[in-house]
User: Fold this.
Amino acid sequence: MKIAFFGTPDFAIPSLRALHESDKHDVVCVVCQPDKPSGRGAASLRAQAKQSPVKQYALDNNIPVLQPEKISNPESLRGFAEAIPRRPDIIVTCAFGQILKQNVLDYCKYGVINVHASLLPKYRGSSPIQWAIIGGEKTTGITIMQTDIGMDTGDILYMVECPIGSCETAGELFTRLSELGATALLHTLDLITDGTVKRIPQDHTQASHFPMLKKESGKIEFTKSPQEIVNFVRGLNPWPMAYFASNHGDIRVHKAGVSNGKLRFEIIQMAGGKPMTYKEFTNGRKLEIIYDHVPTIEKELVSKDGTRKFLLKLPPQNNRADTGSAPTQIGPPSVVQCNI
Assistant:
């Protein structure tokens, strides 16, 4: 089968490699995001453009590469057709980074299929691996989907589950799912070629969608339960990393755990420093966590006489906690009633 592969980051490499090395398929081209400036002064004209992992793999293996700003623009699609005279049978997308319009979806005989790192319809959108761990899921997986005009709303062609380790980080799960995605992709293409693939519509009532993660997304909310914070730390490792404010500036948290119902920070890192155990970090220095102490409304109640009451969720009672010489232990938030 002639395949056009649309992908950009390293998650897509195992799938591209599997297609390129397969004797059943021919990758006629690779389409990825334009190169982005990197390093200091990345916004300047002199900044050096960084090639994506997918582009680098394609160049190393003599696969034609296209990098349109928007592949769905009519001019870009015409350029794609001119550059690739052998019209592909199918387009495979894997962490491509652009929303495709109907003109691209209809371009090939078998349309577009996508390798998505969750069990759809749960965790649609970006960063499904991180959000599954943050959400405390015990199982995730790979879905091969027939792409339609919606955001991860197309029919399911094939799905395979993958357990999430109790201490597994997003980076570790990322590696396992990228390899699993390649295997699932090859199997799905076999089903399409044989004419035995079954399209299963998603149950949209069960869908969940989460926002794109940013660097500032890593701030720990101490109003969360200890286990929720541990999941948050795991889900944001290795990027953007969970952190908290302290008397030593922002502290990154690489590993956390729960002991006797209390949160324990186990491996932490100060800005400009190296990761170290909590004991190593506090050897000769005092670490204090600085909490946000703005209460949030847990629930609003209105009595028969019209009196409004609010249940307020407060951060841990000590706004500025001295962590002492033992691993950080933080109790649950308190809930109080406030009449207005």
Residues 170-194 form the longest helix (25 residues). The chain has two domains: 2-206, 215-339. The CA atoms of residues 225 and 332 lie 6 Å apart.
